[in-house]
Fold:
Amino acid sequence: MKIVNKRRRILFLWPFVLAGLVFLSIQFAIRNSGFVECYYSMGIYPAIARVFSSISKLIPFSLWDVFWVFIILMIILGLVLVILKKIKFWFFGLRVLQTLAFLYSFFYMVWGYNYFRPAIDKRLGWKSPKADEKEFKLVLDSIIKETNYNYTTISSADYPQIDSLIEESYKKQRQELGIKYPNGTRRPKTMLFSSLYGKLGLSGYFGPFFNEVHVNHDLLPMDYPFVLAHEKAHQFGITSEAEANFVAFVICIKSEDQRLRYSGYQSLLQYFLGNASHLKNYHEYLDKIDKKVINDLKFRNKYYQGLENKNLSDMQSAVDNVYLKANRVDKGIKNYDQVVSLVLSWYNNSEQHPVKN
Structure:
């Protein structure tokens, strides 16, 4: 009897003990970002990514989406059993808490510790000071010119080739971006609930439990290269949305393929224009953009506004904000917009700067 009771206590406590240990390790990680970078992000995580992605790539559909549907169904089933008095409420509640404790631990072990690695400017050794308004204008002007020059059309039929080209660019730029390539494999998967995700304003996401890269089926082809490169950046252990946007930008514009370059430049152009709206000569910059690019941007905004449900999108933004801040992304969802600062720093620390060309 004592052995049985001991086993029950172990089965009861182990998810909470594990979660407690993970919580303590997170406190250590927060204070030792260099340790996280060396031993987890560049050591343990690539091995995890290699194993998990080699399994998930064999499945053509999203394991992440199926997993959460299963979890929701189990919760509903549990509530029904409680209502029918087939199980005790405390038993159901305990199982839910144990599951949450395990998922919390599993998330950080298989990917989440990457949140505590050093910021990308420290990882890449950038030394130049932050750009001033003059440099911002120079880079904005350069991005407008490159967007105009690289204008092209993209079709969904191009997706397989675009995937290969993005992988090729990651392989070439791995040293510049501080990425440990190949880090497993990255098979793009379509969201099972693309319409719902579209209403939430989600164009793609990375599923850490199964190391899966997802892209929304309703995504416009001109956005596909940038979004795919962004989600692949997460698979490489880049957690910050701004850093993932920056990496996607570099991967796209450094490609020899015009489709990738156009997607990269037009995606960042929108962020730069948002930051340039306070400039007195803002409309002069708008006048420099070719009409065909303007038409793309207008169509893009109208298209996604048609997909999005404002209430659901606001709810999703609120959830994302809490999630990001909980993982020490201080700006929350505003972190997406910080890509402008990263791109300016990159220009300042590389031969890409307009003044140097």
About this structure: The first helix runs from residue 2 to 31. Residues 332-336 have pLDDT under 50 and may be disordered.
